[in-house]
Specification:
elongated; 13 strands; Rhopdopsin 7-helix transmembrane proteins; alpha+beta; Beta-Lactamase; about 60% helix; 5-stranded mixed beta sheet; about 700 residues; 4 domains
């Protein structure tokens, strides 16, 4: 035993310790995972026994064959456990029982021979059989392991063999090496030292293969998770170290063999190699190539879906770079494919998809795509993700349609991703050629379709919000215009009443004076109405009641309004229980409300016998204005469901917005409007206005 063997078997022991720790962290109580830990532990015990027998405890050397048998028995047992699961699934219970019985007999016999050999070596027992049967038994155990490895691979379904391929290759290679080692020992009557030392290195090289296979088989080491980021940085670090070591070695040999030119060659080489190293480290294309290779050879799935989804959401939702949503979704999709840029086309016109945004995309093609074309229909119907590289080479013809020339002629374009929302294509995205070549396999296509639908939903939601905002602006103008039309109607009724009275009182100087005042007020109100239409803004920006609030005495105001509307054929009266009642309110708005209520009351009563009473009183800190008529009245159902809804009216030619507008104006003044009515008996509308109470207290008082 040499110092080299101590080092090699020590390294092997360390490798199996790392493997056991990895398997133990993610082991489960069920399945072969625990048996794999046992098998790895027997190899660890085997490596430690060889280290100890080489230096510290040479007395262990006679027992090394015993540890060899224990190691092989551990792996045979693990292989049997895995095969038993396959046999049970196929109903081969008898094969399972026979295998366990045979295994027990074989291991028992071999352990017995190893023990006899050890006792003979230390002088406690005479081995009349000699040493050859012990070494031949090792060959038998090796052949058994190889047969079980072959059975495992052959009995595994073809679609699942990728998970055990590395394990079978590694374990098979180790035991083929062992077969060569023991065959040489039997033929030449002793160990070959170089083969003995190399055995440990062979086992070290196999450990990563076992670990990868364990990660691919949940039943072995369930839920083994190796971060793609950790793997990427680890391999980058190892590759960087290897590069620097190689660079240093090459520099040393250049100096050693370069003679007088050696230092110059060494300095130039080291500078050039360091410059190349920095360039490679900063190269996005190099990182992308390395990432593709790692995903291809270390992971079954190409994407870490959790990480990709979190990055996608973060890119779409962040606004730190002040990028518009359309640009952010391009960046989010391009990052998934490691592409440097892309462009977006949307259906902003009924018949065309036009370019609306781009990200890191030079020389944007100016082409448009007709919505009723065969290519667009196929994209929408089949959610076809087009690889423009294949189409350029003529390999993609099975769809029966041609890609537009402006897309095929764009050298940057690589992928066309349709954006489908509720079965309808709202647009498409063109992605640039990625930094490293990628294959569009089923996993990548499925992910792109899912991401495309998500992007489409974001863009559709943005379009809907914009359309809703536009609709609200039009609604604001329409509502304001409807209110203005209603007020104009009231002014027209007021002027019509004035004309009818003029037929009887035109020669009366007092009437003439009142007529001029009334017409002047009507002109002012109409100018105010026109001013309200000059600003097209959301009427939710209604001016607060206090903006135009002023001290108003309700007694003379109501007396004047009633007097202006009294006619000979309708008995309109005013009743007041107070001499003076002042409030801080918007006089113009209050006049609009009272004018509307009184006019409706007049219209609802019969022309000759109808009665309308306007009453003002003060009670418990409230100014109460009540307009009562004995007209046709309204049903309780109409008051509850229709009265305050715009464009609902019981009058022919009515706009149906007066009650809604009146209620909103009274609310702005901090008051409340109450309606009581009964069909055939009339209606009473009561307005509650408070001197000091807050609006919520007014509501409670009115309800009480």
């Amino acid at each position: 035993m040499t110092n080299i063997s101590i080092v090699t078997y020590g390294v092997a022991a360390g490798a199996f310790v790392a493997l056991i720790l990895l398997l133990f962290v993610w082991r489960t109580d069920k399945g072969p995972g625990s048996w794999l830990i046992i098998a790895a532990s027997t190899s660890l015990l085997w490596a430690i026994s060889h280290v100890l027998a080489s230096d510290s405890f040479p007395e262990l050397q006679p027992f090394l064959p015993l540890f060899e048998t224990i190691r092989s028995a551990g792996w045979v047992l693990f292989l049997l456990v895995v095969l038993v699961q396959i046999w049970q699934g196929r109903g081969n219970e008898r094969t399972m029982v026979r295998a366990y019985i045979l295994f027990g007999l074989m291991v028992g016999a071999m352990l017995g021979m190893d023990l006899i050999y050890a006792l003979d070596e230390i002088g406690l027992f005479y081995n009349w059989m000699g040493d050859d049967p012990v070494f031949l038994s090792k060959l038998v155990m090796i052949v058994t392991v190889l047969l079980l490895v072959e059975n495992l691979y052959r009995n595994t379904d073809p679609e699942n063999r990728w998970g055990i391929r590395l394990f079978c290759l590694g374990l098979g290679a180790v035991y083929i090496f062992d077969f060569i080692f023991y065959a040489d020992t039997v033929l030449f009557g002793g160990y070959a030292s170089r083969l003995y030392e190399a055995r440990a290195i062979a086992n070290v090289l196999v450990v990563p293969l076992i670990a990868i296979s364990a990660s691919r088989n949940p039943s072995w080491s369930l839920q083994v998770f190796v971060s793609r980021r950790v793997i990427f940085h680890s391999i980058s670090l190892i590759a960087s170290g290897a590069y620097l070591i190689g660079m240093a070695a090459a520099g040393y040999y250049l100096q050693y063999f370069g003679g007088r030119w050696g230092p110059l060659l060494q300095g130039t080489f080291i500078f050039s190699a360091l410059l190349l190293f920095v360039v490679l480290l900063s190269s996005g294309q190099m990182r992308a190539w390395l990432r593709v290779k790692i995903l291809k050879h270390f992971f079954h799935y190409h994407f870490d879906y959790r990480e990709e989804w979190l990055r996608f959401i973060n890119t779409v939702s962040t606004s730190e770079k002040h990028l518009e949503l359309r640009v952010r979704v391009i960046q989010a999709v391009a990052d998934i494919l490691d592409s440097p840029g892309g462009a977006l086309w949307l259906r902003e016109q009924p018949d065309l998809y036009s370019h609306v945004a781009h990200w890191n995309y030079n020389n944007i093609p100016s082409g448009e795509l007709a919505t009723d074309g065969a290519f667009a229909r196929l994209l929408e119907q089949e959610e076809w993700i087009v690889d423009l590289r294949e189409d350029r080479t003529g390999d993609e013809r099975e769809k029966g349609v041609d890609v537009p020339n402006w897309l095929k002629e764009d050298p940057q374009a690589w992928l066309l991703l349709p954006l489908i929302h509720h079965g309808r294509m709202i647009g498409f995205m063109v992605i640039q050629t990625p930094r490293a070549a990628k294959n569009l396999d089923w996993e990548t296509l499925d992910l792109l379709k899912t991401v495309g639908r998500q992007v489409a939903s974001y863009l559709a939601e943005q379009s809907a919000e914009q359309a809703l905002a536009d609709a609200r602006e039009f609604e604001a103008f329409n509502q304001k215009f409807a209110f203005v039309m209603h007020d104009i109607k009231n002014l027209a009724s007021q002027l019509s009443l004035l004309v009818r009275n003029a037929e009887k009182h035109a020669s009366n100087p007092d009437f003439q004076k009142d007529m001029v005042i009334t017409v002047s007020e009507a002109v002012d109100k109409m100018n105010n109405l026109l001013a309200r239409l000059s600003v097209v803004k959301e009427p939710a920006e209604k001016v607060a009641a206090t903006k135009n609030a002023e001290q108003v005495d309700l007694v003379p105001l109501l007396k004047k309004m009633v007097a202006e509307r009294q006619t000979a054929n309708r008995k309109l009266t005013f009743r007041c229980d107070v001499e003076k009642l002042e409030l801080d309110i918007d006089q113009e708005q209050l006049q609009t409300v009272i004018m509307h209520i009184v006019q409706n009351a007049i219209d609802a009563t019969e022309e000759d016998i109808g009665r309308v009473e306007v009453r003002l009183k003060e009670e418990d800190g409230f100014a109460i204005i009540r307009v009562r008529d004995d007209g046709e009245g309204m049903s309780a159902d109409f008051i509850r469901n229709e009265l305050y809804r715009p464009f609902r009216s019981t009058k022919a030619g009515g706009y149906g917005i007066g009650a809604y507008e009146s209620r909103e104006m009274i609310r702005k003044m901090g008051g409340r409007m109450d309606v009581k009515s009964k069909e055939g008996e009339g209606t009473a509308i009561t307005i509650f206005l408070s001197h000091h109470a807050a609006p919520q207290n007014i509501t409670q008082k009115a309800v009480r």
